[in-house]
Design brief:
- This protein has 263 residues and is of the alpha+beta class.
- It has 2 domains: 117 residues, no CATH class; 72 residues, no CATH class.
- 30% of the residues lie in helices and 31% in strands.
- The strands form 2 sheets. Strands 1-2-3-7-6-5-4 form a 7-stranded antiparallel beta sheet. The chain has a 5-stranded antiparallel beta sheet with strand order 8-9-10-12-11.
- The chain is elongated.
């Protein structure tokens, strides 16, 4: 059998081609960025990053947090990648932090762009990209920064139920609640209804600008449904099924306490 002989000239050409090819890959995969600092927090270590605010994340079973401070195209960014147990948990913690989106749920995703921050749900990840300058350039590059630090090819979406009057976008409107901290942040009136009642999760939709709300409550047992029924008018019960109760309600007007001197 004849052997293939690679001459020294051919070897040099092959090595030169490989060098050029790898150099081109490096240029494509290394955009104009500088990582200034990167930190990772797990379990109780999260308290060291956000103090008391960590309790809210633990209510959603946070697994890990990675924080990176970077410079990208001459703009400063802070990226926070929260790894949660499920896509629903990721949406839940995201839903408590999204308000007044300038752009929401684009490209068939779950995301919210505001003046200084881009937030997104990517499978079981809640991602936040903060750009302190608030410049148009920083805002325009936020999506690219998110793509680099939180790669997301067809991530699994949370299973969001169909709720009456809920229309797109869901960001800034729908909340997923997992415990007393998140429930009290959504509605004080509703918090009293489910106080001391065990539940698995709650999809909560506040109708704006009215103070009406809609809540789909997944409970642990039938006894929990009976307790909820005792606390609300029968007219507020929309539907009861296996393991859930669907209700509507109205947030009470805030009480104004002007004190002894009336101000």
């Amino acid at each position: 059998m004849a052997e293939k002989i690679i001459t020294e000239s051919m070897r040099i050409k092959i090595l030169l081609f490989a060098f050029i090819f790898n150099s081109q890959l490096s240029i494509v995969n290394c955009p104009a960025q500088t990582v200034q600092r990167e930190r990772t927090f797990e379990a109780a270590g999260l308290y060291g990053f956000m103090n008391g605010g960590a309790d809210q994340f633990f209510e959603y079973d946070v697994q890990k947090l990675t924080v990176a401070d970077i410079v990208f195209n001459d703009e400063n960014y802070t990226i926070e990648i929260y790894e949660m147990a499920t896509p629903e948990d990721a949406f839940g913690i995201y839903s408590l932090h999204t308000f007044k989106c300038l752009r929401a749920d684009t490209l068939d995703g779950i995301n919210c762009l505001s003046s200084y921050q881009l937030q997104a749900v990517l499978g079981n990840i809640y991602a936040s990209v903060v750009f302190p300058s608030g410049s148009q350039a920083a805002m325009a590059n936020a999506d690219e920064v998110l793509r680099i630090y939180a790669p997301h090819e067809s991530p699994q979406k949370p299973e969001i139920p169909v709720l009456p009057e809920l229309k797109a976008p869901v960001s800034g409107n729908l909340k997923y609640l997992r415990g007393p901290l998140s429930v009290s942040k959504a509605s004080f009136s509703f918090a009293e209804i489910v106080k001391d009642i065990p539940y698995k999760g709650i999809w909560f939709f506040a109708r704006k600008p009215s103070r009406d709300y809609h809540a789909l409550i997944y409970v642990n047992d039938a006894a929990a449904i009976d307790k909820i029924k005792e606390r609300i008018p029968a007219s507020d019960i929309l539907k009861i099924g296996g393991g859930y109760i669907n209700i509507s309600g109205k947030e009470a007007e805030p009480k104004e306490d002007f004190g002894t001197f009336g101000f």
